[in-house]
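pipeline stage [seq->struct] | target=5,10-methylenetetrahydrofolate reductase | organism=bioreactor metagenome | residues=318
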Amino acid sequence: MKITEHIANRRGKTLFSFELLPPLKGENFEGISQAIDPLVEFDPVAVDVTYHREEIVYKERPDGLIEKRTIRKRPGTVGISAAIKFKYNIDVVPHLICGGFTREETENALIDLYFLGIDNVLLVRGDNPAGEKVFRAEPGGNFYALQLVKQAVNMNRGIYLEEEIINANPTNFCIGVAGYPEKHAESPNMAADIVHLKEKVDAGADYIVTQMFFDNADFFRFEKACREAGITVPIIPGIKPLSLKSQLSALPRTFSIDLPEALVREAEKCVSNQQVRQLGVEWAISQSRELIRHGVPVLHFYSMGKSDNIRAIAREVF
């Protein structure tokens, strides 16, 4: 079922979804099961499966020269999505990114997902390669998420890259895109960021999932700005509970977000990461309850592969 259909049928109830990482290369499905099993009782409407682009590593050869190599540490988003769908009978939302894909590879991935009966995709530009400050697209690939959305929408209309294909079957994807309550790191300001988001919606995106935020006021301002700009699709808030003291600096640095003073103050009092994790659970419970009262259609949680804290939150709010 499409995410938009789940939302249309929710009868005023806030739904539950979460995101996980594909396992590292060489690992098996057991780690995925350990992350999903504790959350099944809360009736997740969907499980998102992220995609991670290649990483650049430099290795010294026996002759002393430095060799540049490209590796993928987390392959298998399509296969993982299929395994979750058929083992758990839960809708999955595989992520597709611009970086590392040609447009032909993107089309092939979407064809595979369509053959598997997967109804939803989340389309994002993706991050810069590790160690590189500037985003680079694959030659022959999409540079912007907007281009990725347009390609998927074309396939929904039966338009493929090979123009000679006649009577091509259209796909039928529900398309999600990312929103940034504190604006994208590369946007000059929030107004410009909303303009770009509306372009993706106007191109055919069906719903928005936000990046993590820790102050609901940021989400409410973002939602209001979207509505005033004429964006009418569902907006799903993304929640990540704080779990490590090191995240006080790592999260702002990595995601260009602010952490509320009250949260930082309490986290700095913690003498162990276990205490930080419990604080993160309590903060996210408070966030979730206010967002539910506000009437959000879905609460989406970033699990990062560990679900014990997500389970503790869900037990209190669902």
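stage status: PASS
auto-comment: The chain has a mean pLDDT of 90. The CA atoms of residues 53 and 100 lie 6 Å apart.
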